[in-house]
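#data-curation
PF: Archiving a pair of folding outputs for the training set. Convention for this channel: one message per protein, sequence first, structure tokens after, nothing in between. First:
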Amino acid sequence: MLEATLAGFRALRHEFELRDARDWDRAVTLQVGEVKETITIRESRVTAPQQQAPFRAPVRVGGNVRVPRKELDVRPVYPAAMREAGLTGVVPIEAVIGRDGTVSSVRVLSAQVHPDFAIAAVDAVRQWHFTPTLLNGVPVEVVMTVSVRFDLEEPPAGPAERAAGSSAGGPQLDDANFCCPEYIETMTQRIRSNWDQQQGAAGQALVKFTIRRDGMLTNVEIAKTSDNPLLDLESRRAVIETRQVPALPDQFRRPDLTVYLTFDYKQ
């Protein structure tokens, strides 16, 4: 058995019998490797005609063959329908990099890929551009395999989600960089003074309201119900009857501030 290996080339293993002297003279041809790339997605001037070069089959690059370098990278766009449906997927692709560095052909290697993912991946890969690959000083086509992964991550919690589970003393704002925590404390105490926590039932209601520049409380609504109309009513009443809190601080430049306040009832 003959084994031959060289860095960047595919290993060769061949079994044969040495019956006479000429069997000892063997020509060994190694195939070079292939270009591989994995990406994850968590969004021409007409030239003069040139003499046609002789046909060469695409090679699989490796060893002493120069690896093509990507000059133009276009990221696939996550299909909106797949994102809304919460679907993820991986698209395996085989592409051919032409002698001029453009991607001359693209094909999806699996029939199990959703068409929307396949189209998005192929559209992006077709636009890639590479430096030409030279084999013995002559530009050649190169086979490349690509894995395009479409994945989703959980979005950060918004004000309503962060406020859920907190007490009336821990409001959440639509401005994470609000200037003045002492103002929030004063506002919360003013509303708490109008709130009757003893309702003979347990539950938690989340109230959303807006503080205008002059301190008036408007747009009071239940952002998350306690599933008990009595508790929801009392929570909303506490804010409405407060009616006004101190004016927004001068350091806060916006005309209003949206607040999410949780009312926690114990039986």
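PF: Second:
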Amino acid sequence: MIYDPSAYSLSLRQRAEGFLRRLAKRTPEDVALTFVEDGSCVEYLGALVEQIEDERSAFVSAQEELRILRETFWAIASGGPIPMFLTCPFCSTRHIDEGKFATLSHATHSCQECGLTWRPAVVATVGVRYLPGFNKASG
């Protein structure tokens, strides 16, 4: 599902406007009592604000995920190797391509621990320490 901020903003705005229209139909004394005694107006508007903040947070997360996917897509589309976490199928040692192999397109990898040579995919891959968009500081 693609996040559409305008749809959520419109929905929230419509709900808030409807609430304010209903509030406008009341007498001033009624409104004052609702705010002071009942607190429902404040609670409702507070809930709307929380919902907007949650949706904004979800939108920022979706943007970050999209950025990572875009970087990976361009790496693949440009003919570069696909970054992957590679582990030797025999001894389970993590395989990280370094030096010239970090950018060289290759599909065959050799374990530096046991010497096994294998192909993790049909296309060119590169063993990485961190996936694109992530690093040691961000976890």
